Amino acid sequence: MSRSNSVAPRTFGPTIVLAGLLAGVARIGINLWYSILVLSRAPRATPPRIGGGATIAVVVTIAAIVASMFLLEPAASDWARQLPTWVTEPADEITNFGLSGRFLYPLGFIILLLSALIGPWLPAVTQGVLMALVARFGFLFIAIGLPSLFDTIVKRLIGRARPYIGPRDNPFVYKPFVWSPEYASMPSGHATTAAAAAIAIGAIWPRSRIVMWAYALIIMFSRVVINVHHPSDVIAGGLVGVVGALMVRRWFAARGLVFFADDLRPYPGPSWRRLKTAARQIVSRTTAPAA
Predict the structure, then answer these.
(1) This prediction's pTM
(2) Which of 17, 24, 158, 257 is deepest in the core (most CB within 10 A)?
(3) What is the pLDDT, as a whole number, of residue 1?
C-alpha cells in the first residue's frame, strides 16, 4: 500500500535562499530610502526657541575649556603619569566603552533588521510598530554618530598634541591638518560619543538619564586617567556631543518624528502588548508554509 502527501514538502534550494536574500536587501533599500525622505522633509512645526540659559551654558563651558588649558593641564598630565597600574589598567579597559562603534554597530544592525522585516504582507498596525522602532533607533544612530563624525574630522584639523607628546609643561603643541592620531587630542572622541549617548538615550528614556550621565562622566575621566587627553579635550568633546545630540533631537521634532515639537518630549513608544503581537505576526508570516 502506497502513501502520498497532499502537500509537497517544502525545500530550500540555493535559488530560493538567494532569492530571499535579494528580496530582503531590496526591502532594506526601499525602507531606508523612505526613511531618508521622511527625515529630509520640510519641517511641520517649530520647536521651542533656544533659551538664554542654553547660550550661557555654552559660554561657561567654553570658558572652562580655556581656563583648563592655562591652569590645569600640566598638573593633570603629571598626575596621570604617576598613577599606579592598578588604576590605569582598569581605566584602559573601561574607556573602550566610549568607542562610537559600541553604539553604532548594534543600532545599525537593528535598523537593518527592522527594515528587512517591514513589508505589505504585515498588518498595518504591525508595520506602524516597526516603523516607530526604526524612527527611534534611527534617532539614536544619528544623534550619536553625527557628533562623533564631526569630532573625528575637526580634531584632526585642529591637530592638538596628546598629553604624552612633547614637553610635559606645554599643553599648547599643535600640528593642524596633519591627520595623525598623535595630534588628534581635541575634542575627545570618546567624550563626544559618551555625552551624545547620554543625551540621546536620556531623551527617549528619561529615567535612564542618571545612569547614562554617570557612564559619560566615567568615560570622560578615564581619558584623563590613561593620559591620552587633556581635561579641556574631554570638556570640549562633551560640549560637541551634547550640542550635536540636542540639535538632532530638534531636527526630528520639527518633522514630527519621535518627539513632540512643542516641548521636545518623546512620543509614547509601542506597548509591550503591541510589541508581542507584532513579533507573533512576523513569526507567523515568515514561517507559514508555502501553498
Answers:
(1) 0.90
(2) 257
(3) 42
